[in-house]
Amino acid sequence: MQHADRLAALHSRFCPRADIRIAILGLPSRQAVACQRRALLKETQIATKSKAAQALAKLATGIEGFDELSRGGLPRHRTSLLIGGPGAGKTVFALQCLVNAARRQRTPGIFVAFEESPRQIVANGATFDWGLASLAEKELFFLDAHLSPTLVKAGDFDLAGMLAMLAAKKKEIGAQWIVFDGIDVLVTLLQDPVAEMQEIYRIRDWLADNALTAIVTAKLENRTSEAVHYGFLQFMADCVVRFERRQEDRVSAQSIQITKYRGSGYAAAEFPLSFGPSGIEVGAAEPAEIGHGASSERITAGFKRLDAMLGGGVFRGSSTLVTGVPGTAKTTLAGKFAEAACKRGERTLFVSYDEAAEEIARNLSSVGIQLKAHVKSGLLRMYSARTEGIGAEEHLTKLKSLIREHRPRCMVIDPLTAIAKAGSLGAARTVAHRLIYMVKDAGITLLVTALSETDDPRAESTDLQVSTIADTWIHLSYLVLSGERNRALTIIKSRGISHSNQVRELVLSKSGPTLTDVYSAGGEVLMGTLRWEKEAEESARKTRQRAEFDQKRRELQFAEARTSAQIKALQMDLQRQRAELALYADENEARKMSSSERENELRRRRSADSAGVSSRNSGNGAAK
Fold first, then answer.
1. Predicted pLDDT of residue 40
2. Distance of CA 54 to the CA centre of its chain
3. H/E/C letters for each residue in 3-68?
4. Predicted local distance difference test score (pLDDT) of residue 364
5. Which residues contact 361 (CB under 8 A, 6 or more apart)?
6. Contact predicate 252/245, CB 8 Å
7. Where are the beta strands (DSSP E) in 294-365?
8. CATH class of the domain whose range is 57-282
9. Judging by DSSP bridges, how do beta strands 472-481 and 319-324 pair with one another?
10. How confident is the model at residue 579 (pLDDT cuts 50, 70, 90)?
11. Are both 57-282 and 298-518 of the same fold?
């Protein structure tokens, strides 16, 4: 009677007409139902205004992406409504909130199932890595609230007993979360608008009295049925989240959208949703501000001649896009990049959407790229998958899981454009952009390949339009000259790097890929046989030049030797002539000496007494 009295008081206040008040307490009428809904809406608005001055507390759901969209999670001690069609993810979302609270915050929760049995719910939850069976024994309480149509039609149905039991259980385990899953089952079985309002209102009052953070789920077949059946539920709830599942190009696409959140800002757009190993993941919008770091470290792009064209390699943590039509050796360049990373001892993830891992390893070994040893060592993780049948969002979820498991420093995706094979192209573009930003935020050096938009070798655009956000863009193409098809490589852009603008021929051999020297004739780059002929001609010319040089060198050496011999003979003749000249000079000097001088010199040499000689000469003179 308390609820009836309260309803009467509400309608006395907001529905002054006595006939309507009587109808509410008696048989239902359209006017009574409409008035009761207005009363509920009015009271909700009054309650909201009274709490407007208080800061809205929130509880994080732990669901990747959703807490960013909701600016922190679901409102604490308030009710959130999840609506959507069958299989859209409502029950998984609600159960995942309870599991995350129990595992991360050790916060118990209660799950009230109006549709499925607790055994079915636990069995379904076992597909995720939650450990739900063990949580169900300690941290989570499941209540089987299946309604008997016979009981409801007999008029004996009342939620008061169940709510009293839940209050006792809440106190016993200290629960802070509660889920009412499948409230639409209750509404459908009652088949009485007034009874529907009474029981929903009873749940709302009970939640407010017990200070629980509540999640209520309800099926919604289509958008038009929402206003007819569940409009009053949205007025009651503080947060409304819509789940939708639709077919897009033969692929099931799921999305999530917050349509209402009292007292809080939120991202109002529709965002993709997918199921991963840990449950639901929401493709939240990337932050408006790009905040990943920028390393100055250079690493090889695969082989030396390509690094030379890039001015020393690519930056650590950057993204490289390799485009081209089929058969231009995109996978070969990707494999060489992965092999170089493994040789540095870095963990590498190689994702292929074209071939199986064993096929890739076998095929690349024919061009000198050996990956099997690195796979065996655990440095290289190779993952291959088909892209038909599942959407781009599910591929992204799987890639996130692989990155968490392997923790790579380098990563290859070959080709990235394969994720657009199924589902909408717009969704694939969004996923591709989010993937590149996510990998760069993690500091992973990324190389992705992409098929060109057309078979025209001159085409340089891609379906996913990722060339604008890639740091380095390498384009591979075919050049057909003189009946030959040859591969050409050019670097379209490389941010922060002074790179080559030349077109080089890409040659594959048993020793690996390499780039040849540039030969041009008539303004065109020569490749294949024309290049070989040019190289042969150049080699012959160099051989002739070497022969001519050797001949000239020998002639000059002979002339030098002859001249040296002549110089030596002349030097010897000069020495002889100098000796003769010295001898002649000595003889001439001797002839000039007088006889007396010669005698004096002789006496001096004989130590004669010059004085005695003089005396004798004087005596002889006196005697005369």
1. 52
2. 41
3. HHHHHHHHHHHHCCCHHHHHHHHCCCCHHHHHHHHHHHHHHHHHHHHHCCCCCCCEECCCCCCHHH
4. 94
5. 371, 372, 375, 382
6. yes
7. 298-299, 314-315, 319-324, 348-352
8. alpha beta
9. parallel
10. confident
11. yes
8 Å CB contact between 286 and 462: no
Q: For residue 302, give both structure tokens.
A: 């695969």
3-state class (DSSP) for residue 127: coil
Residue 195: other Cβ atoms inside 10 A: 17
CA angle 262, 264, 266 (to 5 degrees): 110
Q: How far is residue 62's CA from residue 59's CA, in Å, rounded to a whole number?
A: 9
Does the bond joining 415 to the residue before it have cis omega, within 30 degrees of 0?
yes
Tell me the pairing of strands 239-248 and 79-84: parallel
pLDDT value of position 449: 93
Q: Which residue has the higher pLDDT, 468 or 18?
A: 468
SS3 312: coil
Fold of the domain spanning 298-518: Rossmann fold (3.40.50)
Ranges of H-type helices in 142-246: 149-153, 160-173, 183-190, 193-210, 223-229, 231-236
At 10, the amino acid letter reads L
Tell how strand 109-113 and strand 177-181 pair up.
parallel
Helix (H, G, I), strand (E, B) or coil at 538: helix
In 3D, which of 504, 509, 526, 443 has the Cα closest to residue 307?
504
What's the mean pLDDT in 519-533? 65
Please write the tens of the pLDDT for every residue from 270-325.
888 888 888 888 886 655 566 667 888 999 999 999 999 999 999 999 999 999 88
* Percent share of the chain, pLDDT over 90: 26
CA distances 414 to 389, 419, 591, Å, are 18, 10, 110
Count Cβ neighbours within 10 Å for each residue of 267-287 and write b for 16 or more, e otherwise.
Answer: beeebbbbbbebbbbbbbeee
| Tokens (6 digits) for 564 | 């040296």
Confidence at residue 420, expressed as pLDDT on a 0 to 100 scale: 80
**Pairing of β 251-261 and β 271-276:** antiparallel
Dist. CA 237–CA 590, nearest whole Å: 143
DSSP bridge pairs for 59: 74
Q: In degrees, to the nearest 5, what angle opens at C-alpha 363 toward C-alphas 362 and 368? A: 90
What's the rounded Cα separation, in Å, for the pair 444 and 428? 21
Q: Which of 188, 203, 182, 208 is nearest to 115 (CA)?
A: 182
Question: What is residue 614's three-state secondary structure?
Answer: helix
Q: How far apart are CA 325 and CA 330, in angstroms?
A: 9
* Structure confidence by residue, pLDDT tens digits, 399-447: 988 999 999 999 999 988 888 877 777 778 888 888 888 899 889 999 9
Q: How far apart are CA 340 and CA 348, in angstroms?
A: 10
Give the residue extent of every domain in the chain: 1-54, 57-282, 298-518
3-state SS class at 364: helix
User: With contact defined as beta carbons under 8 Å apart, do 204 and 161 qualify?
Assistant: no
Work out whether the CA dihedral 262, 266, 270, 274 comes out positive or negative: negative
Edge-to-edge strands, sheet with 213-219:
140-144, 109-113, 177-181, 213-219, 79-84, 239-248, 251-261, 271-276, 279-282
